[in-house]
Amino acid sequence: MEDFDGEESGEDRVASFFGVGDERVKNKKKREIEQPRYDWDGGDFGVYMKEKQRKLHDQFAAQFKPSDPVVKEGNQSQDATRSSTFMHGVHLHVSGWTQPSRETLRELIIKAGGEYHTYYSTKSVTHFVATSLSHARMKSLNEGPKIFIVNPDWVVDSIQQQRRLPEAKYRINLGTDSRQHTLAFHTSTLQSPTKEKNKADAFPEANEDEVDVQDELIVDDTNNDAAIKLDAMRRSGKLLSTSENVNFVKDFFAQSRLHFIGSFRARYEQLMENVAERLGMKSGNALLQDSVTCQEQGEHMFVERIVLHIDMDAFFASCAISVDPSLRGHPVVVCHSSSTSSHAVTSRGEISAANYEARSYGIRAGMFLKTALQMCPHVKSVPYDFELYEKVATKVITLLHAFARLVEVRSVDEAYIDLTGQDTWPVRGKEMKEVKPLKTKSDVDEFCRELRNRIEAETGCTASIGIGSNKLAARLATKKAKPNGIYRILPDETESFVAQLKIRDLPGIGYRTCEKLETELRVKTTEQLRKLSKTALQNVFGANAGVLIYECVRGRSNEKVIPLAARKSISATVGWGVRFGAGDTEYNKAVRFVVSLAEEVADRARQADAVGSRVSVELLKAKSNAGEPYKLLGQGSCDRIRSSASILFAHNQESLRNELTKVCER
DNA sequence: ATCCTCCCCTAC
DNA sequence: TAAGGTAGGGGAGGAT
Ligand SMILES: Nc1ccn([C@H]2C[C@H](O)[C@@H](COP(=O)(O)OP(=O)(O)OP(=O)(O)O)O2)c(=O)n1
Ligand SMILES: [Mg+2]
Ligand SMILES: [Mg+2]
Known about the structure:
By secondary structure, the chain is an alpha/beta fold. The protein has a domain at 2-12 and 210-262 and 565-665: DNA polymerase, Y-family, little finger domain (Dna Ligase, domain 1). The strands form 7 sheets. The protein has a 5-stranded mixed β-sheet. Helix 5 links the parallel strand 1 and strand 2. It is globular and about 75 Å long. The structure holds a DNA duplex.
């Protein structure tokens, strides 16, 4: 659908869609309607056409059979008390699946006087523990400063004998997967930039945990019959030409708010260094390990839990208002376009955040500015200020860690805190001088009140807090608390609280799940959902997901509050303003574009001290019946073409990309 | 049973 | 003008 104004025509389409009998005819006659990203971008009115999955992958399947050597990712902790010191000076990092588990190894090493590191870093880690390792990973580990690379038995045996055994006898298997297929090796030459890039990708400096380097590319491939696309290209002209601007990828990321919130986690480790410093702790790792230890200790406490969910109110908008008080009290939205420009009334700039004044007119994140202006002609828009949001987030996260031992930062503007077992506050930083008790309900209330006050005092932005007996309850409570409030759901109230919500309000149940519940299980309300048996849900959603929904609608959740761990994958995607046509020139542009994205991934991997064990690429091709994208220069309705392969040698990557770019040419 | 890959879905 | 990214959970279905 064209845009938000298209509600009526959307309905129109629904009607004619259902009026046609044969699906193939429908697909021919009706333009494809994209899956909505937001409930109000027309999605609830439009039809999502579940079209038969046309797997193009059989086209490549004959040529690649990717496989993954193994994986690593580790996040651990520091807890047990030291009982000996023979491992003193050993800085251990565990990567991937191990026997015994990462948690056990962590405990063992700490008890023996060593130190544990959640993140791998060439600077601090002396011993790298893994069960198996790809050649590429091994090579990169060996390129850095000398560290010991050992299997888990080294730790176990050393502990057993109470001495540090020689590392040499505990070599790691250079693992191969019997299912690994040899990639078709194409000698046909690639553009040289592609080659350079491959190298960069395959051998970053050091190795992090299980890191799956992902290189995604979205190509909207204009086909012969896609006159509409050509038209869009023409209209966008040179100004928007995606592939002509050599800095397109960088520019795009610099402006993208979804990139900003999506890449928060990539910046988190660095951010925690800053937080640790503000709290007078020696390092971000020390802070993190303390939080992990607390989590592990609390795990064995089978008492009623006290979980808080803290979420900033209208975050981006609040930040803007905090530095420009003249905006306070007005309806404010954050987006690229300006509400005072003469073009504002036609603006398809997407709103990122709307303050509560704006929301009272029905304005929501994800809407176009022009729609917001229809709802409220005097709404003020402000541009993005990502640095400001990051600064505010850092202050908030610092406060959270000063107040509580166990913190899980979930995004740039929200976090969970588990207070179970914490009996005083604050726990870190200067204010430790005056320690208060945290035992009764009213102590918790006081804790929350003070936390909210401090956040507002230090940032000029307000936060809301939900209190519950699990993460789900706390999260639902926050929603109720907003804006600028606090709400507690008592343990025995949780179930009845959920009963008064709409299914769509339940976290984890999104647009598609709601749709399935309605069409396949005839369920529209939480009350009806509650009547479904576990089995019925499992039949539709699978064994695990079925139980999750079943528990969720009863207000139950086992999810633990856990400090943010290292990422398991790194990727870069651009799905805006990308158009490639047929022919050699366009093909070469597409290849250059893939390369620039791959370089972006390589940069990010290097920054994270990560090496990939797998590469994947994804292309989007406009469906032949796709209409104009709903969003200006957006991706519209596309087929996805993807492939991945494990990386043992750099040239695999090269051949992979070679193949993939060929596919994109098609 | 468990481990893959490929894919869908969700949330900020 | 406008910047629809990112990462994780999990299922289906095939291979081991
Ligand atoms: N579709 C969205 C949703 C969110 N965000 C950004 C802007 C938000 O300010 C920030 C935090 O998201 P929240 O869901 O927490 O929304 P707000 O903080 O804006 O409002 P609320 O008071 O409901 O938390 O993420 C965005 O850019 N696009
Ligand atoms: Mg918020
Ligand atoms: Mg939030």
